[in-house]
Amino acid sequence: MGYSELSQLLDREIKLLETLLFKLEEECLLVESGKHHYLAAANAEIQALVDDLKTLELRRALASSDVCSDLGIDNFSSLHDIVKAAEDPWNLVLAEFRTQLQLVSARIARAQNNLTSLLSQRIALVEDILTLIDSTGPRNIYSKNGRVGLDASLSLLDGLL
To answer: Beta partners for 142?
Structure first.
C-alpha cells in the first residue's frame, strides 16, 4: 500500500460522504413534505452508508499507516501531518483531499442540524396536538351502533394536520 491506494480510498470516502449528504437532505425533504412513512427506508439507506464508511475508514487507517511508515512518522498521524511530511506532488494531492473532506463534513453537519431541527419541530407539533386532545377530555367517537360519530376535537385535529 502507498500513496496511490490512500488517495483512492480518500476519493471513495469523499464520494460516500457526498452520498450521505444527499441522503440527509433527502430525509429533510421527506420530513418537510410530510412523507414520514418513507423515513424508515431513508434511515436504512443512511445506516448502510455509515457501515460502508466504517469499513472504508479501517482500510484508510491501514493505508495511512503504511504511508506514515514510508515517511518515518508516527503510524497514527493525522492526514494533516501526512500532508506536511509528504513531498510533491503527494502533499498537494492529499491536501486537496483533506480540504474536500473538511468541506463535505461541514455540509453534513449543517444538514444534520437542519434535520434535527425539523424533527424537533414535528415532535413539538405532535406534543401540542396530543395536549390539545387530552385537554378536551374523552369523547364518544363511536355511536352505540358502532358507527363513527362526529367529534369536534377530531375535526380540529384534521385542520391542524
So the answer is: 148
Tell the residue number behind the cell numbers 473532506, with chain if given.
101
The whole-number average pLDDT for the span 130-144 is 63
Domain annotation covers residue 158: no
Q: Which of 1, 9, 7, 12 lies closest to 89, judged by CA? A: 7
Name residue 148's beta-bridge partners: 142
Lowest mean pLDDT among 40-44, 52-56, 123-127, 131-135: 131-135
CA-closest candidate to residue 60, choices 18, 16, 112, 99: 16
Given a cut of 80, whether residue 61 has pLDDT beyond it is yes
Backbone angles phi, psi at 142, to 5 degrees: -110, 140
In a domain, 37, yes or no: yes
Q: Which grid cell sits at 104?
A: 463535505
Q: How many domains does the chain have?
A: 1
Residue 124: pLDDT over 60: yes
Domain that holds residue 60: 3-115
Give pTM, 2 decimals.
0.78
Q: How far apart are CA 40 and CA 28, in angstroms?
A: 13
